[in-house]
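Let us begin with a simple case.
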Amino acid sequence: DGTVVQEIFGAGNGAIYVSSQSAVALSAAICAAFQDPEQTFAAGIRAAQFVRANYTSEQFIARFWQALDAPDLRLQGI
């Protein structure tokens, strides 16, 4: 919870967020996932669809070149 993964995978995109890395919090999230396998499966499908729609190699390359061309990132005088 509160990580870059949560920023990338917003609500409804198939990720489950845990409030801490404690064994209690993690086991509670895992148990909840096992208690509703249909919902867990559907969340996995949503996550896969989200990744395929937003993080292909072509999209990464386009964003990479766009970032390199940003005015504040250009190398001056080289």
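The second case is a distinct protein. As before, the sequence precedes its structure tokens.
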Amino acid sequence: MANTNTPFGLRPVKKLTGCCPNFQVTKYYVPSTDATAIGLGDPVKLAGSADADGIATVTRCTTPGTDVVAGIMIGVQPVPTDLTLNYRKASTSMYIYCITDPECVFEVQEDSVGGALAATSVGLNANLVLGTVDTVTGNGKTMLDSSTANTTSTLDVQIIGYKQGVDNAIGNYAKILVKLNKAQYVNATTGV
């Protein structure tokens, strides 16, 4: 069965250690001065500030291989005037919730640019490629950039394996399991 090209961002699936799928979630603030929409599954980075209550501000990652990921957005604080809103609208002051757990394993679709990832890519690192936000589903369209798979330590994610299931096969648009390689809250990282 051929894989379908339906990017959905990064989805949490399990932890590297243990079987308990409890992930550390952090509330962040995105001010109205930020003109970029953020979808479910999109990576965010610290913006170097906080709101009046001290909640850290974030912005959507923009530079694969350079940005240090603070978290992956999994939800928004409900907006009373629009309870159907499930993504962070551009230029709108909102609170978002992100998985910041460095032990989290995510599922992400590869983009197949330059060809599909091979089975020998497991264990390599790769960058993410950012897409637009689907304003109907709320999903970000972040994908794994298959053309960047390499041993380079500064790439965004590490490839853990392939999602197992009848809806996935090695080949174009495969669903890949990854962990963040450049996470804000692990080891020694540069402040913002």
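The chain has a mean pLDDT of 91. The longest strand covers residues 43-50.
Keep these points in mind for the review questions at the end of the chapter.
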